[in-house]
Automatic annotation (TrEMBL):
UniProt name for this protein: Large ribosomal subunit protein bL20
Recorded name of the encoding gene: rplT
Protein task: Binds directly to 23S ribosomal RNA and is necessary for the in vitro assembly process of the 50S ribosomal subunit. It is not involved in the protein synthesizing functions of that subunit.
Upper taxonomic lineage: Bacteria, Pseudomonadati, Verrucomicrobiota, Opitutia, Opitutales
Gene3D superfamilies: 6.10.160.10, Ribosomal protein L20
Organism: Intestinicryptomonas porci
Keyword field: Ribonucleoprotein, Ribosomal protein, RNA-binding, rRNA-binding
């Protein structure tokens, strides 16, 4: 009985890893041993940072809304509480876009809340 090796699958696995690490610096793009480790780290960072990106965007939207509120003499927390009390279901992204691109619309939203 001939000796069975796993050469085809092993080669395919190595080629696949080296393809994904193309462009990495030094041995990380050339040698399988280092490329495998670099690929694992890159995957961990990518997974983590997809969540971090959401956090950072939320912080940005809050800062924009707060700036727009301060110009009108309001506090962010008071504005958001009034929105919730009035059952206006706009998320922070939409409110932020309204404050940046359509100041008249944001002003109308503030007037609708009767905060002044």
């Amino acid at each position: 009985m001939p000796r069975v090796t796993n050469a085809v699958q092993t080669r395919a696995r190595r080629v696949r890893v080296l393809k994904t690490t193309r462009g990495y610096f030094g041995n990380k793009s050339r040698l399988y041993k280092f490329a495998k480790d670099a690929q694992m780290h890159a995957g961990v960072y990518a997974y983590r940072d997809r969540r971090v990106r959401r956090r950072e965007f939320r912080k940005l939207w809050i800062a924009r809304i707060n700036a727009a509120c301060r110009v009108r003499g309001l506090k962010y927390s008071v504005f958001m509480a009034a929105l919730k009390k009035a059952n206006i279901e706009l998320d922070r992204k939409q409110i932020s876009e309204l404050a940046i691109s359509n100041e008249a619309g944001f002003e109308a939203l503030v007037k609708q809340l009767n905060l002044k």
